[in-house]
Design a protein that fits this description.
3 copies of one chain form a homotrimer. By secondary structure, chain A is α+β, with helices and mostly antiparallel strands. Helices cover 23% and strands 29% of the residues of chain A. In chain A, the strands form 4 sheets. Chain A has a 7-stranded antiparallel beta sheet with strand order 1-22-19-24-17-16-15, with no helix packed on it. The first copy, chain A, is globular, with a radius of gyration of 27 Å. Chains in contact: A-B, A-C, B-C. At the A-B interface, helix 1, helix 2, helix 3, strand 2 and strand 5 of A face helix 1, helix 2, strand 18, strand 20 and strand 21 of B.
Chain lengths: 510, 510, 510
């Protein structure tokens, strides 16, 4: 009896422990928990599917952590500035936070936020995660995606179509892009600075004509089939890329193509090299022969921004801002009418080393910036993040939002290097600063561009100087001339000389 | 003491058991769990409401299972093909899956996905569930609804208005539809093939003029008040349909209608037959007198597709595709300008018995197809469903999506018969095949129709044949002439001779 | 051993109790639970953040309850009618429900649904909660916000910009509103009845020119940066309002403004009075000098509805409806072209004491009404609320929605007084009744206004009278002349004599 009682006790103890662990473990890692929670609540999952889903979560978290660890190590030296600080309450918590903190900045994206959609010997395509996967604060741009394509010289990118409208910007390499519209095939030989639109559902393939230079293309995409989701559809292909023809029943395919199954098996079975392969010089020459545009079917030796109504070279226009501290090139729908229905403006900023752009804000547009080259950092003032000093997006119906006072602005910031992405929502004041070692080159996609105005906060045309004397005095509670003395000091415009020293931790004033 | 200890142990054991059961039971049925979860988290529910809500869940699940069981039994014989296979991993799992599998195809809808909104002796109106209730993958069409109305000859459908724009297609019967716009009443005598738009909030009633033929109307709706929700508002009526006047206070109603309450009680108390009743020949004759359109108030004996600018007959135009294997009739906003603000194209496909349409894909439009008559099946290639071989929509932030390779395409398929609905999102290659016994007639609503292009994947104008020689070779990794040999075999267009045999399980090639 | 066993038992007991309490407590208050649930599932929260979040929940719920208690007490006397009834099942449950019931009406908002965004000695700005925070049934207007500004005479509202398009309506006071667009500053002297649009991102400040009258302005806002969220950005300011300049690093700010940090500290450190302060007579005079509009730079002594193309006076137009029972003034985009891209119509209804408006419904528009003055109540028929007699929004995928019969309409109602807000979705019949003591004045924002029609349900042009004789008879199941006798009684239009008595509980007829 005493033994039984003890056994029972042990059993109970174990049960209770199990339950406690269950409750405790579920609170360990928020992302893991979130992931498992979704597995559990996914409608229609049976228990086996749920199990697989949960295993996927564990694996993903483990992998992510290893990647992060790896990244942190490999960063050790190169960055010219330590990571700038990101909030008010941090002074007290610095030692404990480090990288973690940075990861919680919902407006800033780095390598680990991209997934690799295609990877072969010859190149890769990386796609940034969905903006709303990161934070609900980015709902305004939830149906846009950003990605980039990098290939070796002479790489061929296999034919496919996308369920998204795509605008691409050529930063490096010389791609010959071929699209098929209706019964017409068009080839466009693009160069550095070209913008090109590929309408959703258009079969496209391309080759890097350059023998020496890598191809580097940035893609801005607006999905049309599943909002926020982006997929490629390969008609041609085999095992890798898989042709979508292979999803149909053999009987259906035989009838559709009027061909016996063994021939089809052969056709759709040879390609195993993936969707980015290597083309021969001869093939590149043939693939670069322009046809279809404006009726000219032959070889077209001359290239320029205006060579095709379907492409626009950002550098073919005078910069809209230019001084020794930087230059800004812009294309709106007046320049490139294919941007109109996307309500998009594309700009390219080249910030001289040691210089800065802004602070300014966009009145209506939300700007998605992709760093092409150089190093630096950005800062942005944001009233949406919580006043606890963390860059946490507030979930929508959070009671704390029912605040009773004026907004507090948190500093959002991040170190910029090639491949970093940052988002500046409408109304949010922001600035970007180039390192002292290299120019900072950024391509920006501004959505909701119609009627947008850039409002400068410092420099010759800053908005504060334009207030009435009385407004200055009442707003700052100092004599108006004191306001003017400060806001009239800076007489450059848009691009300015940057800070002498690296920024210290924290905000401007405690 | 020993006894007390034992009692305590028992109590503890029971507590632990209770907790374990609590945790275990919550994982039993995903849909039930989901439902109960919503009851629990519904803001503002008190405990009694939560209890009722949970009871509703249990009841609903029980009922759903019984309906399913019933359906499965009653299906036994009639289908001409066994259910086509739906995925790669299935070969191994066939014996266990059956119907369940089919139910998880988020692009395919059958009887059990409709709810009966109106049912009387004389007819019924059935409404398809919200697309996003089925799957998040259908978010692009979340604010559209599909339904159909069936009535006996000489049925009258009571006056009401809807909080949705409606486009109706008359497949059977000859309805006289009366709408009230401002101070104008218009009657439209519609026939087989007519499209007609009823703007949101427009009072409407109709009668089936035909003495012998049933009325069969398909409705496409775009809600304006609660996105994705669709309701009818009956001004006239009594107990059934209930008049919305009855929701107001008696005092308010008396003042508004300047009438004593007992008279109002009489007026709003007589109708108990429901919103679809039987009209006499005399009444039908009167109700069919056209007035209001183009100023003609009198009887209008002649009907045609062009009789009213508010209706358009799909068959009044030459088919846009026609051969011995099928015909396609289409109306876009150029034909019927009332489709413009809905960004809608309507098409009617009549696929000859034993023939097929496609494979093709829409570049931008998402197509919602409703089977009007005949039998057959459809197949579609989809990269969005999980690679486990199940047609499961992936929840948005699922880590597995962070895949590192080219997409895999799953086969989505379903048996078609009257009332089946299937959805082909933009970019997704699809085909539909008619049985050898009957023509397959389908009405299609294509949303996001502006600038959409149908891209043929086989036949005379197939897109693969248009690729450069070099692209063919590089993409398929076989000589280009081999590609051409296969893709030039089929020289029909859009409609083709179908497969000789029924499809076997699985995809084209393992 | 026995002792140890007992100790173990106690430990176990405590553990089990703890777990039971954990599970039980989580089900106590749905809002609290929801709040804590969000804390728990917030991606990226570490355990400390989660803890803070949860403490915030507790605090908020406690505070909310106290506020409610306080409100209920202070209401005791003044209301002229007891709260009208809101549903069918209520007769049985009255004694228990009271205020709670009212709170669950998702179309009706009172004081407690506003948050105070700014509060100083001189005035305050109150913002209504997000519509979808209240109910999913309001998704159609989820990206609109309503608020109001009240200040003392001679108050100055500090310069800021918003991440939302704003339309303001001046009900009391005489504000001089200054906006900065590009390099142009414009001052607009507005008066009672003026509508004015402030584009998103436009720096604006204002002063109440009136020496005696309070300023009372109603704001309609459409956010552009985070859908449904609304924030102010103060460039000028100090501690309160905080200037967003203070979020940047000192180094960055020094470089941007070319000014030493100690001078900046002084400039951004003086303002502590908040964003609504008091201006002197002299300052007001200066701030009211109009410039910038149409080139006139000087003082502009004459004011009228047409004084500026950027403002429109609602009362400058003839009322679109007017009789002894009330008057309706309207502005659509033809009157005020700045309403066009917002798809907005603004109307002002002045319902004579003891009179009523409607019942009518909007065909497409959803109307958001804000009570400016007077008392009364509204009633609306709604098919979307649950048939349990509670004004509970049904969560989207609730199985109970799969109903099998015609809709039942619930009465939605609420007592109106200054600051009450009610929403009438498209298609929903509604009426509003003024008390016998005062005129009821309401400003209405109708979104989705394009092609909207108001459909009158009673009075001279009521829609029922326009049905065919046969339709009346078939629909009501009584002779058509009986229908006419009742629906032709009321020969006024839109505004009518109100009910003699206050409404009793319940619907028109049981």
């Amino acid at each position: 009896m005493a033994l039984k009682s003890k056994l029972l006790l042990v059993a109970l103890l174990l049960s209770v422990l199990f339950l406690s662990v269950y409750v405790a473990s579920a609170t360990q890692d928020p992302e893991l928990k979130q992931c498992r929670h979704q597995c559990e609540h996914q409608q229609g999952f049976d228990s086996k599917q749920r199990e697989q889903c949960e295993q996927g979560c564990d694996k993903y978290i483990k992998q992510k952590r290893e990647e992060e660890k790896h990244r942190r190590k490999s960063e050790g030296g190169g960055s010219f500035y330590p990571i700038p600080e990101t909030g008010r309450a941090q002074e007290e918590e610095e030692e404990f936070q480090g990288r973690q903190q940075q990861d919680q900045n919902p407006y800033f994206f780095e390598d680990e936020h991209f997934e690799t959609r295609v990877q072969t010997e010859e190149g890769r395509f990386q796609l940034l995660q969905k903006f709303t996967e990161r934070s609900d604060l980015l709902r305004a741009i939830e149906n846009y995606r950003i990605g980039f394509l990098v290939t070796k010289p002479h790489a061929f990118v296999a034919p496919c179509h996308f369920d998204a409208d795509t605008v691409l910007f050529v930063f490096q390499g010389r791609p010959a892009v071929t699209i098929v519209r209706g019964e017409k095939r068009e080839t466009h030989n693009l160069e550095h600075g070209d913008l090109f639109r590929i309408p959703a559902g258009t079969p496209v393939y391309m080759v890097n004509r350059d023998e020496n230079e890598k191809l580097f293309i940035v893609n801005f995409m607006k999905p049309v089939s599943v909002p926020g989701e982006y997929e490629a559809f390969y008609a041609a292909g085999g095992e890798n890329p898989e042709s979508f023809f292979k999803a149909f029943s053999p009987q259906v395919l035989q009838a559709a193509l009027k061909t016996e199954i063994n021939k089809l098996e052969r056709l759709f079975g040879q390609q195993r090299q993936g969707s980015i392969t290597r083309a021969s010089k001869e093939q590149i020459k043939k693939l670069s022969q322009q046809h279809g545009q404006g009726g000219s079917e032959g070889f077209w030796p001359f290239h320029g921004g205006q060579s095709s109504s379907d492409a626009f070279n950002l550098f073919s226009k005078h910069p809209s801002q230019a001084n020794k501290f930087g230059r800004l090139f812009e294309a709106d729908f007046n320049d490139f009418k294919q941007l109109q229905d996307l309500d998009l403006l594309v700009s390219f900023a080249n910030i001289t080393q040691g210089a800065m752009v802004g602070p300014y804000f966009n009145s209506r547009a939300t700007k998605i910036s992709f760093v092409l080259d150089g190093e630096g950092y950005f800062e942005m003032a944001c009233p949406h993040v919580s006043s606890t000093g963390r860059q946490e997006p507030q979930p929508q119906p959070q009671p704390q939002q029912r605040r009773k006072s004026s907004p507090r602005y948190q500093k959002i910031s991040g170190n910029l290097r090639r491949g970093a992405v940052f988002v500046a929502p409408a109304g949010h004041p922001m600035t970007a600063i180039a390192s002292r070692n290299s120019n900072l080159q950024i391509i920006c996609f501004e959505v909701n561009a119609h009627d947008n105005i850039r409002v400068p906060l410092v420099g010759k045309k800053n908005v504060v100087s334009q207030f009435d004397r009385e407004a200055k005095q009442l707003a700052f509670n100092v004599p108006a001339r004191e306001v003017d003395r400060i806001f009239n000091n800076q007489d450059d415009e848009f691009f300015f000389e940057g800070p002498n020293e690296q920024p210290e931790h924290g905000r401007a004033f405690a």
